[in-house]
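Researcher: Predict the fold of Gfo/Idh/MocA family oxidoreductase.
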Amino acid sequence: MGYGHCGKNLHHVCLRKLQVLPTLSELCERVHAVDPQVSSPASAHLASHEQLLPPDSIREGVGVVHICTSPALHLQHVREALHAGYRYIILEKPMVISQAQATELLALQRTFKAHILVVAVWAHSSLIKLMAQRLQASGGGLAQLQIVHNKPRFSRTLQRHGEHVFDIEMPHQVSLALLLAGDELKLVDAHSEPLHLDGETRPSMKSGSLCLEGPQGERVRLTSDLSSPTRERRLSMELEDGAFCQGYLPVSADDSYSQFEAYSPSGVRIAGQVLADEPLTTCLEAYYRYFLACERGESPLPPLGSSIAFNQRVVELLEQARHLADAAAARAVGSIDRPYELRA
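Model: Structure tokens for Gfo/Idh/MocA family oxidoreductase follow.
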């Protein structure tokens, strides 16, 4: 459901990669795009529809619904899929846009005994797994974490209304922060800036930042700049003993590699590594394996970061951040890069 950039260029591309895996031979090639904007099929294996099909009309097998529409429509489209008879759903981030909707979504899952998984792309990154292992093996705790996701997004921002910078890349960043620093993080500060371009203004769509703290004083800084002239997906992690590691995630579909660096407490570079990394493909593979196990009557645990319960905390922090950023909009603020900076 939704065959724009996310559905067409991300989810469908990853599905095509999964369809050739011998370990996922049950995965059918046929994809039904439910989107009134799709005028004609792109290939022999893609059919377009304006409305969701009844599950029993999909003769190939059990239907899995990927919801790739705008966040404000997610709850409505989940409800439609459930009432139509679908029970396996993959939901893009942000899951929903409010805590009230998150509560309703959880109730729907229980009522219909459905399996709804929220995309947790970075939880399935080779780089993130390596950094989590470094953190666990350190024997100490996390002191500081910074996650940066910058990219130019002018055209798509001007084409749309009602978006917020905290709904673009920040849901993935908050999810990653909770996975690395724990789900007891509390919001300390939030800030967003409007985009002014070509005589138009898009409130809260230029850049944004979140500052969070953990129960042991861990400091977390998340920033996203949608007016950046360059693309960057980077996270920096400083441990209690002063050791430091930094990672660079793939910035687009053009490349499928991450880079990792580690430094000693004295600042000496002690490790560097290039990692094959296709996190969204790996994520969807894990989700389909989960669905197949459920279909066999098993009771597997949801993949890391994918459950509605986990993502309720993501939604809660983002909703708090929107309110805090709106309240601070009238105040004069400094650069979003000033507080909570980690050492290079």
